Amino acid sequence: MPIKNIRKPLMLTLCMLALPLMGCHDENTSGDSSEGPKINVDYSSAKAAIDSIQGAMNFTVATTIVETMNTGTADAPVYSKVTTKFNNYYTPTYSWCDYTDAEEGYAVKDGSVFRLNLYNDQIVASDAYADDDGNKLTSIYDVVASPIPAASAVASADASAPSIEISNKNARLAFIEFVQFDQTFFADIVSFTAAIGTDEDGAQALVLTMTGSDETTITSTFGGFGTTAVQDIVDFLNEEDSGSSVYDPSLVKAMNGFLGDNFTKLTYESLNYVEDNPVIGEEIYHPDYWYGGYYPESGYSIYSLGYVSLPQKVYTDPTTGKKANLDGAYLFHLNDTMSAVRTVALSYPAFTTNISDMAYIMDYPSNMVLWDHNLQFMEPYDDPSLPVEGEAFITYDNYMMYDFFETAQIMNSLQAATTVMSCLLIDLIMVVNLDAAGNLNTIDFLFDILLNGSAIQLQLTYTDFGTTTIPALDQWMQTYITDQK
């Protein structure tokens, strides 16, 4: 089954990841257990066990997933049973999942809730989480969902049976979310049971088992009530300077610049960096429109096009005065110098539905996971040989690199220039250049990859943050477009 969270190991056909291995820290049940409410588990029946652990905040869930996966290639598939094991640890003040190469959890300290990850064999913390109103969260359970089924999900179950079927839809979806499978797995569920069984030490335990029509089996065993602790996390939180991160101001400015959905990306003649690489066009990013334009001298201007968002709008024909209702995103072309609107195709939306969110349609950089409490993975980087000026930051994190690779549609660009046989992601560098007043000037991403065995550095340059417009298109909309009444 596909894993919902791409922090889980990636199986790619063309693009594999090359990065330092992240080791596992040992978990144990010594140290501060942060017990929380006292729980006495009733193992007399499955329903009694679930009822008795409601509200538990200190326990361990040991999960084993057995699924059939292609361990070969797309051209020569080899289907085998693959077993994955991991543990989730829960306490009132922190949680932790030891999924190999994707170790992650949440913690609260000094009134702030933040995420923890194992990165380059060290625990790193995110910035503080806040609610929609900007108020800091104060409990990890504001962001961590307990995997314990709700008592209401088994309210009608046999109160004395050692094993029961859980048919409740919400309980099934919650368990799918807990193991981070895609929710489409819901349609494949054959059974979801709760039973009194034993843990790996032979002690009584509550065991949840979900099986799928493709023979996938997920088994989660609950134990360690009142004794669970992860010593590495305890030690980290006891350090004087641990807690939520405060990001470098330049990184924050870069993040806010991209989240504004208004900037220009330069189009270079060559995607990989070369000295004096000529600019042959630009991509205009705006909340209301996107345009990919090539300069006339590039020889590619015939490929210039864009999309304008016109949700619930009315177009008035300047010749006949007739009005037409619009709803969606529409294809448009500018002249070769991008100084005048040539055509806008208003007969029907450019896409199969009436979606009009331009950042969603064109997958703007604002969608990158880098901005979602992940700037701690961008470390200060000092290399005088960098070809661009500014404050540099680097990451080797596979999640950040792969997401950037996908969002920037780099594979499409690579395949347009060469046949991609292999592609390894090495590191991603972000260089933030500020003007004399401290405002964003340019942001360059330098992406080191190994393409077909050769090391190259890709360059993506963004500029004109908050000021990018297409005056001719703005004027066209002001003249001919109004809101539907």
In whole angstroms, the N-to-C terminal distance is: 47 Å
Compute the average pLDDT. 91
Gyration radius from CA atoms, angstroms: 27 Å
> Biggest β-sheet, characterized?
13 strands, mixed
Keywords:
single chain; 485 residues; mainly beta; 13-stranded mixed beta sheet; ten-stranded antiparallel beta sheet; 8 helices; globular; disordered N terminus
Structure in a nutshell:
The chain has 485 residues and is mainly beta.
Description:
The chain is mainly beta. The protein starts with 14 loop residues before the first strand and ends with a strand. The relative contact order is 0.13. The model is unreliable at 1-33 (pLDDT under 50). A hairpin with an 8-residue loop joins strand 2 and strand 3 (79-90). It has helices spanning 46-52, 169-178, 231-238, 249-259, 358-361, 398-407, 410-417, 471-480, and strands at residues 15-17, 59-70, 79-90, 94-97, 104-109, 112-119, 122-125, 163-165, 189-198, 204-212, 217-223, 263-268, 279-286, 289-294, 305-316, 323-334, 341-344, 379-381, 391-395, 423-434, 440-451, 454-463, 481-483. It is built from eight helices and 23 strands.
